[in-house]
Write a structure and sequence with these properties.
InterPro entries: GK/Ca_channel_bsu, Guanylate_kin-like_dom, Guanylate_kinase, Guanylate_kinase_CS. Keywords: ATP-binding, Kinase, Nucleotide-binding, Transferase. GO terms for molecular function: ATP binding; GMP kinase activity. This protein is α/β, with parallel strands linked by helices. It has two domains: about 110 residues, no CATH class; about 180 residues, Rossmann fold (3-Layer(aba) Sandwich), CATH 3.40.50.300. Helices cover about 35% and strands about 15% of the residues. It contains nine helices and eleven strands. The strands form three sheets. It has a five-stranded parallel sheet, sandwiched between helices. A four-stranded mixed sheet has the order 6-5-8-7. The chain has a two-stranded antiparallel sheet with strand order 1-2. Helix 3 crosses helix 9 and helix 7 packs antiparallel against helix 8. It is elongated and about 85 Å long. The structure holds adenosine-5'-triphosphate (ATP).
Length: about 300
């Protein structure tokens, strides 16, 4: 940049009398004392403070007389070869020598903080389906296995889908303050074990929590902006009800209760950070959007910092 500015100045003031060489050194980072000279003696006076010289083959710099850096502190003048005529390592070393310090290989930005991602939405919207697919495509996430007192559905695996336990066992966890959040959902307890979150976040994993709307509201209160809240919706009420019917897991009473709650629950969307429309037949698109949200969160300058 500075080199270009110098070239421009020469070109403007002196109609570019020399073909400037690509070889340039930078003995001082103080722009006011910056000058460029050639041992081969064609000298241009740019201002009262700067002197510039050039030869067809080289440009090196020297400090001006009114430089503010004292000579003992100034890095030694080292010619910097142009990358066209020297290897990368040679140019690299010359740049270091010229600046008087070595380039750090430390990451410029530290690793992003582990995230807590809270996924919620009305019953039957597809939370489990989205999470199941996310699990397959994204290995760097841990899906917190919820503890529940409800009975296992066909195909569900203990410790994978839920930690299935008795009501007594669940109450004991509440008593020992081992749950980040818990609730009675349609007659069954469901809760988020704290230790599991701590263990995985310590290992650098992002953790995903699946909670109902009330659970999300409670987590928002205690975690505030330190977690990412995602609300999942279906494209229409009709689509949502059809999905619930199609799942064939509910009694008629439970079905009615879930459908009735869904309308009310949709009002909570504004309490979330993101909304994902899980469109009919487009589960894959919803999963992609979830991934984009996570990636964007990782790139945030102001990182969230969740502690449980
Ligand atoms: N994008 C989609 N298009 C069509 N069907 C879907 C889609 N996503 C999920 N489903 C289906 O909808 C039904 C409900 O999905 P799922 O069980 O994942 O919902 P949920 O939100 O986890 O429900 P609950 O809160 O009651 O556990 C399932 O049969 C699932 O296969």
């Amino acid at each position: 940049m500075l080199f270009r500015r110098i070239c421009c100045s020469i070109s403007k003031s002196y109609h570019n009398p020399f073909s400037l060489s690509p070889i340039l050194t930078n003995p001082s980072r103080n722009p006011s004392s910056y000058s460029v000279y050639s041992p081969n003696l064609k000298t241009l006076r740019l201002s009262s403070r700067r002197t510039i010289s050039a030869t067809p083959n080289s440009l090196v710099s020297e400090s001006s007389t009114n430089s503010q850096m004292d000579d003992s502190k100034r890095p030694p003048m080292v010619p910097i070869p142009h990358p066209d005529s020297a290897g990368r390592a040679e140019v690299f070393r010359a740049l270091e020598a010229s600046l008087g310090s070595s380039f750090s290989s430390e990451p410029i930005i530290p690793d992003p903080n582990p995230l807590i991602i809270v996924i919620s939405g009305p019953s039957g919207v597809g939370k489990d389906s989205v999470i199941k697919r996310l699990r397959e495509v994204r290995e760097d996430l841990h899906f917190v296995v919820t503890a529940t007192s409800r009975t296992k559905r066909e195909g569900e695996v203990d410790g994978k889908d839920y930690y299935f336990m008795s009501k007594e066992e669940f109450l004991s966890m509440i008593e020992k303050n081992e749950l980040l959040e818990y609730a009675m959902v349609y007659g069954d307890y469901k809760g988020v074990p704290k230790q599991q979150i701590r263990d995985y976040m310590e290992k650098g994993y992002d953790v995903v929590l699946r909670v109902d709307i009330q659970g999300a509201a409670y987590l928002r209160k205690i975690l505030r902006d330190n977690a990412v809240f995602v609300f999942l919706v279906a494209d229409s009420e009709e689509a949502l009800v059809k999905r619930l019917i199609g799942r064939k897991t509910e009694t008629v009473e439970a079905l009615l209760m879930r459908v009735a709650s869904a309308k009310e629950e949709l009002k909570h969307v504004k309490e979330f950070d993101y909304v994902v429309v899980n469109k009919e037949g487009e589960l894959e698109g919803s999963v992609k959007l979830m991934e984009s949200i996570i990636d964007a969160e990782k790139a945030k300058v102001q990182q969230r910092r969740a502690v449980v």
